[in-house]
Amino acid sequence: MPISSLFQSAALAFALVAAAPVFAQGAPLNAPAFDALVAQGPVADAATIAASPWASKIRQAGTLRLGGTQTSNLFSLLNEKDGRLRGFDAGLAQMLARYILGDAAKVQFTQVTSSTREQVLINNQVDVVLATYSITPARAEKVSFAGPYFSSQAGVLVKASNTAIQSTTDLAGKRVATQAGSTGPAILAQFAPKATVQEFQTHQEALNALRQGRVEAYVTDHTLLLNTLSLGGAEARLAGAPFGAQDAYGIGLPKGSDGVAFVNAFLKKVQADGTWAKLWTLTIGQRTGSTAVPTPPAIP
């Protein structure tokens, strides 16, 4: 599957950020602009819906059952004041709901974690999972993926005061956190085989372990770490540049679902009309000081 790097054009900027002890950005999301962009998303015609049993079932039910997260500052964060989820993933999910149902608000949300994303699809609890969901061969045995719609690499997060860890080469003999059920354990086995790995169920638990000194570093998706640092905290920094293979994010669907072709057509549409680039700029670019809009990954 051909996958384009989303970060080639921004690699230098990210490397400079990674060297700094404090992530200086952290601009709040422009909620009105986000809401307006979602409201302008495309709507599929009746023939397009009728051609897909997956989409037809959702149209008949009147709601898109979404597996997602609500604590990711850049990708899907719940605004407790108005009850709205906003971010890159949240925007795509709401636009998908609008594409199928004509209304971006017709979403039934289910919270998922790295360890539960396959199971909610297998158990028919959700129609789709959109949650920075890395496409892997093991996962593809259980569920199907549309996309990829985004791409990232791995990163290392340490306390700002930690000068001993500057890259993956410094992780040998160190206590390193990662998320259970994520690609983190395999990445550490490849790039830091002598690290003492501790797996946590959630991103927040891993961050807490780092803050409390129970681990010395946290290795996970680089974009998720940017998300953490975009909150403006000065107590952590990225140690070195992103590393490892490009990590393609996909949209999870039930195994063998015709929804893959339907969602891929939707993704190609929002890429071609500039909506993808506008969403990236609003939710990630403006929030992390990145001005170069990356090229979306190629969709089969």
**Average predicted confidence as pLDDT:** 88
**Fraction of residues in β-strands:** 15-25%
Order of helices and strands: HHHHEEEEHEHEHEEHEHEHEEHH
What percent of the residues sit in helical stretches (DSSP H or I)? 25-40%
Mass-distribution shape: globular
Detail the poorly predicted runs: 1-25
Number of helices: 12
Largest sheet: 9 strands, mixed
How many extended strands?
12
What value does the Rg take, in angstroms?
19 Å
Give the termini distance in whole angstroms.
Answer: 7 Å
Q: What structural category do the secondary elements indicate?
A: alpha/beta
Give me some keywords for this one.
300 residues; alpha/beta; nine-stranded mixed β-sheet; three-stranded antiparallel β-sheet; 12 strands; 36% helix; globular; disordered N terminus
